[in-house]
Structures are given as structure tokens and as C-alpha cells.
From TrEMBL:
PANTHER family registered for this protein in UniProt: REGULATION OF ENOLASE PROTEIN 1
Native source organism of the sequence: Streptomyces nitrosporeus
Highest taxon in the source lineage: Bacteria
Entry-linked SUPFAM superfamilies: Concanavalin A-like lectins/glucanases (SSF49899)
Protein name: DUF1349 domain-containing protein
Region (Disordered): 1-24
InterPro entries membership: ConA-like_dom_sf, DUF1349
Amino acid sequence: MSTGPHGLPFPLEAFGPDGRWEHTDGVLTGRAGARQDRFVPPGGDSLESVSDAPRLLGAAPEGDFRLSARVTVDFAAAFDAGVLYLHAGDQEWAKLCMELSPELPTICSVITRGHSDDANSSVVDGNSVWLRLSRTGDAYAFHASDDGEKWTFVRTFALGAPERKADVRIGFLVQSPTGEGCRAAFDHIALLPGGLADLRDGS
């Protein structure tokens, strides 16, 4: 894999509102402003009126891959989150979140296909957890971990047309849908080749 600027494992570009992204001593930090989110309510407004949130994204590698990071969030309001983000198109994206949902730190996932779904996975003890986004063939998967070694399955899904894999972007997002702003930090960032043989064996 190529190395991006500042020692990150791949080149990244900012999208959306200013996230004041910084990368120092192996830690990437970003900040969402008040009421910033990227979510289209299932029964609500159309995509054109969706709110936005700071994103730092790079081109996904060809073939199978695993993107992982430890995510630490300075929670202040409901649904503040640090996120691993997958962008497959203007109306198709996915989020794996370390989120205050709404009172307890929780692993949450969102898949958007024109409108968003929303699913809680497990409660986290503290404000830090490891998250992983992977691709195996045409399928994506989300996992979470307490230590970055043994992984717990969150969900698997397909997103975007297989022939448009070259357009997929992956990276990081910070959100604060109900609050006045949120800071999240990402460290131990790794982008590795290869997918997963078994989604549920902890590897």
C-alpha cells in the first residue's frame, strides 16, 4: 500500500464541512461542528436536504482490504460519534460508529441507499474502541474490538455496483447531530490487503 502524507497509510482528501483535521504522532483528529451529521431519515426528507459532516477520505485499494483504527470520542451530546466511513456513490454510503446512542457509548452502523437505516450493535465500556471496515469480493463487513486483536462481527452488506469499485472511497468522519460539536481521534490506523475468510471467528 502507498503511504499518504504525514505518515498515514494512504492519501486522504477532506470533504464536507471543515473538520480541522490534524495528524500528529500517529493520531488523526477531526472535529464536527454543531448539528453536523450525514444521515437521511428513513421516513423523512429526500437526499437533497441531508445534513453533512466532516469526512477525510481516500480511494479504496483494488481488491480485498481491511481498514482499522482505534477510535476515541470526546462525547458531549447524544449521537456524537467517530466513524469509519465508506462512500460508494452520491446516494450510497455506510458508517461504522463509536457513538453516544443516546446515553451510552455504543457501536452503531448505518447503511444509506437514498435513505439511511440505523442499527445499534453493542454497548462499549468507555469512550474508545477499535473499528474495522473490510471488503471481501463484492461484500463489505463491519467489525469492532476491545483490543484490536479479537474482532466481533457487526454486520455485512453490499453497497454500490460491483463495476464501480474503482470509485469507492474509505476513511473517517466525525459527527455531532444534536450537540454543539464533537472531537474524535483515530490512532493505530492500518490499511491492509486481503479480506476475511470467516466473518464470525474473531480474526
